[in-house]
Amino acid sequence: MAKVKIMNEALLDITISRLCQQLIENHGDFKDSLILGLQPRGVLLADRIAKRIKELDGTDVSVGKLDITFHRDDFGRREAPLMPSKTEIPFLIEDKRVILVDDVLFTGRTVRAAMGAMLTFGRPKQVELLVLVDRKYSRDVPIEPTYIGKSVNSIQSQRVTVEWKETGAEEESVWLSLED
């Protein structure tokens, strides 16, 4: 499998800081805004963003975890049953500005499912999407991110992988590889 590193740890750190600066600029004190990380991989990025905003601005941002398992359009079509993760939303989202966070945007189906799952908790005032990597030219549904860490032109047979220390990686990085 051919792998190409498209972001090393230093660039990943800079990119997260830039995304946080954009969020601070657009959301101010975050009193009417909150972050929902999509389980499982978006949660790591959401936590990292909330921590960095606290470091940069001193602002505490409400962060929740959203599982989309039962809202997926392929839920009943898989051979093996999907194992859901835990949804943790310890606050109201009604009339709030919600920032959905995921690591990689590919077909848009995960985000579509996240919208359905999120709406079971109330009707937000506004929804934005933040992704670390946007795989352009690959959408099945018309979903576009509001905040993008890096755009990557990729083909269907390629895969984008984000490696975090929290999941056992020695160095945090983003890889583009050909699937087997």
From TrEMBL:
The keyword Membrane does not apply. Keywords: Glycosyltransferase, Transferase. CDD domains: PRTases_typeI. InterPro entries: PRTase-like, PRTase_dom, PyrR_bifunctional. GO terms for molecular function: glycosyltransferase activity. Residues 12-166 form the Phosphoribosyltransferase domain. Gene3D superfamilies: 3.40.50.2020. It holds the Pfam family Pribosyltran. This is Pyrimidine operon attenuation protein/uracil phosphoribosyltransferase. It comes from Sediminitomix flava. The lineage of its organism: Bacteria, Pseudomonadati, Bacteroidota, Cytophagia, Cytophagales.
